[in-house]
Amino acid sequence: MIPKIIHYCWLSGDEFPTLFKKCINSWKKQLPGWEFRLWDKTCLEEINEPWVYEAYEAKVYSHASDYIRLYAVYKYGGFYLDCDVEVLKDLSPFIELDYVLSKENSDSGYIEAAIFGAHAGNPYLRKCMEKYHDRHFILEDGSYDYKFIIPDIMMQCICEYTVLENIADFKLSQSTMQIYHYLCIG
To answer: Known PANTHER family for this protein (predicted)?
Structure first.
């Protein structure tokens, strides 16, 4: 069972843009009784992962948050939402599942990293997190590893974790709950 927790990440310390405030307010409106956990720079000590520290120090917050979102949901369970995701309906129908993933609405075949959920200790998320261990964001030549991105990692791991050889093989049936009816990505 997935706990009723929404994790979100904001590392810059800047004020939230208007769109993000609107989206976060939609969570609170549609998800009364849920817990909302902001992951900011104070979480870095708990996480203790070189990739996160290096990306944060380089002010490449999008890459630092890639690992943080996996860690948050793996450790505590719940759903991760990017701050530009608007919740249109209560997500409670999904909490009985082991995990919730969505596919990008494009030809890329990527798993959508802006929205996912799982119970604490989910083995798929552990597999994703393991890809970061012993990896550095700042490369030996001083450049940044911009090519190592969470959609690639999630796609690679779902193929390792399931019987799918390629995420493009994943098809939705009429009986599948469609999470995109519950959310809108800004």
So the answer is: INOSITOL PHOSPHOCERAMIDE MANNOSYLTRANSFERASE 1, MANNOSYL PHOSPHORYLINOSITOL CERAMIDE SYNTHASE
